[in-house]
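=== RUN LOG ===
request id: a7f3
mode: sequence -> structure
chains: 1
length: 245
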Amino acid sequence: MEEIPSRPYAFPIMTIAGIRQSITALQRHVDRAIWTESCSECGRRGSWVCGTCQPVVQPTGTPDCARCGVSGGRTCECADLPVQLDRIQTAYPFRGWVRSSIHRFKFRGEFARSPYLAAATTPHLDLAGIDLLVPVPIHRDREHDRGFNQSALLTRDIAAQTGIPVNLDALVRSVKRRPQVGRSLQQRWDAVAGVFTVIDAMAITGMHIAVVDDVITTGATVSECAVVLMASGAASVSAIAIARG
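=== RESULT ===
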């Protein structure tokens, strides 16, 4: 009998993006198995935000300024924003269950809160005309230490709610600096200058992009993202987030 030569096993080739998506899916599966739904504010089980805590923080509604998105009688901040940033939209003020939900999601690794936060946020944003969602990137060292980029997870879940395509790799943070917490207004702007890089300009050329973050405070980070994306060929760039700090 003629011996049939054996063939080496062909291992499937996975891209870095595919590996990352697989790891994220596994993390979410484990997360759902570990974390049961509980109110981020009072800890009551059964929902991500209970019926008592939820009404305390209501959506922002129509902002006082349609471009910079400030509300509650705050002074317009358009003069601080670069011309490359079309608009800032946030759904809630950063307090109460919104603040505690974001903190649990971001700093305690409660990934399972992300779909809820996306579902609670998306109805309060005007995303008409947006072609592409791009998360604010964090430096690879910080993402390695934390295990995830909260803005990327949130972007995926907003995409699932809206059907808008996502490019998770459009921007990278090529310069590592300490977190913005505790910085003054000017320090926040100085800290993000020149830290972002567009990887593939062709992928964003002519696109109307919404940059996604969890919280927007001064607008410095999303402004720098807008400057870099516009310089690389984007048609327009706006910014969206769960809350305004």
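=== NOTES ===
The chain has a mean pLDDT of 86.
The two ends are 77 Å apart (CA to CA).
=== END ===
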